[in-house]
């Protein structure tokens, strides 16, 4: 039921639901700010409060739009903010997986820094495609052919977003499998499992659940776009509050309760020895290739083809002090206090 003849909504927009989610995301975001201050983890989990702020702004405009359903700028602002917020949580997962790889570098097929830069790069490309599609559709002088092209671009961008995220989940699964094969993570939790094993298992399963939640939201958007503006999802309001609201708030609340920094070392120079017990200060995983080369060859395919030997610092454990047993200044001297991914 349309609220009025000039309404931009094909239904009566709720005036209560935006307030509920606004308050929920506000509380969660404030707690995430506190957690970032407590763990000093802004370089890793700052995306969580950032995503929360986008939702707060989006639902605020949604509430205003419910009272002014024919106001186009407010409608567009609310829609865009609610579309932009969920992918920010995917960025959190990219960063966290990168930190897991720094912790067990000998199990990764790629440099940990490539995780965030590669998937963020894909997201940037997808964003450009989405913007071009949206510009074609929003252009008041667009021809029917240009509008069709714009819709096709948006469909393609959403499908690519889903494919990109599934590739990320596949990489996460590969790391998890290698952790199991190397005895770093048990398939089932046991009282005998050491602290490092429990932490690895917890952070991997935390990311699986988060990835599943985000994937459900992506699937919702894919189906909505392919159904079109006359489809069920676009003509009913409850799916938005379930998938963009409740699902994403569940992800935020989960990260409030089991914050990733409870399971990750503070510095990315700390790595877990192959014995699965000893934590050591290493040099960090560096790539001595030039910036241009790393930009073109993200995964060092040339090095694999030419069979270049690389220095694997984790095979030289005696050179690296055990965490907690290093001499004063030795640990931070291995790479500073940076926690960059």
Task: From the structure above, extract its key features.
two-stranded antiparallel ribbon; 2 strands; mainly alpha; disordered C terminus; 341 residues
Report a brief summary of the structure.
The protein is built from 11 helices and 2 strands. The protein is mostly helical and 341 residues long.
Description:
It is a single chain. The chain is an all-alpha fold. Helix content is 62%, strand content 2%. It has eleven helices and two strands. The protein has a two-stranded antiparallel sheet with strand order 1-2. The longest helix is centred in the middle third of the chain and has 38 residues.
- Residue-averaged pLDDT, rounded? 82
Choose one word for the global shape. globular
H/E element sequence: HHHHHHHHEEHHH
Question: What is the count of β-strands?
Answer: 2
Strand content: under 5%
Q: Give the N-to-C terminal Cα separation.
A: 49 Å
Side-by-side strand order of the widest sheet: 1-2
Largest sheet: 2 strands, antiparallel
- Helix share of residues? 55-70%
Structural class: mainly alpha
Radius of gyration over all CA atoms, rounded: 23 Å
SS field, number of helical segments? 11
Q: Which stretches are poorly predicted, pLDDT < 50 over at least 5 residues?
A: 328-341
């Amino acid at each position: 039921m349309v609220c009025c003849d000039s309404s931009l909504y094909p239904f009566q927009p709720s005036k209560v639901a935006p307030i509920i989610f606004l308050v929920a995301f506000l509380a969660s975001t404030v707690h995430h700010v506190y957690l970032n201050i407590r763990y000093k983890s802004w370089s890793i989990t700052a995306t969580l409060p950032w995503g929360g702020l986008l939702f707060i702004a989006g639902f605020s405009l949604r509430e205003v739009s419910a009272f002014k359903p024919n106001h186009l700028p407010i409608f567009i602002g609310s829609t865009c903010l609610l579309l932009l917020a969920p992918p920010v949580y995917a960025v959190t997962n990219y960063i966290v997986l990168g930190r897991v790889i720094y912790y067990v570098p000998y199990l990764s097929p790629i440099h940990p820094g490539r995780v965030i830069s590669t998937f963020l790069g894909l997201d940037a490309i997808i964003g450009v495609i989405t913007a071009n599609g949206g510009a074609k559709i929003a252009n008041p002088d667009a021809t029917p052919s240009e509008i069709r092209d714009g819709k096709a671009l948006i469909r393609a961008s959403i499908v690519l977003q889903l494919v990109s995220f599934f590739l990320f989940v596949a990489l996460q699964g590969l790391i998890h499998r290698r952790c199991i094969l190397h005895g770093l993570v048990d398939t089932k939790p046991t009282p005998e499992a050491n602290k490092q094993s429990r932490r690895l298992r917890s952070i991997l399963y935390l990311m699986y659940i988060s990835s599943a939640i985000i994937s459900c939201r992506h699937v919702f958007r894919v189906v909505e776009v392919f159904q079109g503006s006359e489809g069920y999802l676009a003509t009913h309001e409850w799916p938005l509050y379930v998938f963009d609201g409740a699902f994403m708030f569940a992800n935020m609340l989960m990260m409030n309760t089991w914050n990733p920094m409870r399971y990750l070392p503070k510095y990315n120079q700390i790595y877990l020895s192959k014995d699965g017990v000893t934590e050591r200060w290493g040099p960090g995983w560096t790539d001595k290739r030039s910036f241009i080369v790393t930009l073109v060859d993200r995964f060092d395919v040339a090095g694999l083809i030419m069979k270049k030997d690389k220095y694997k610092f984790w095979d030289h454990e005696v050179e690296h002090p055990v965490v907690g047993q290093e001499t004063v200044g030795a640990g931070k001297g291995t790479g500073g206090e940076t926690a960059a991914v």
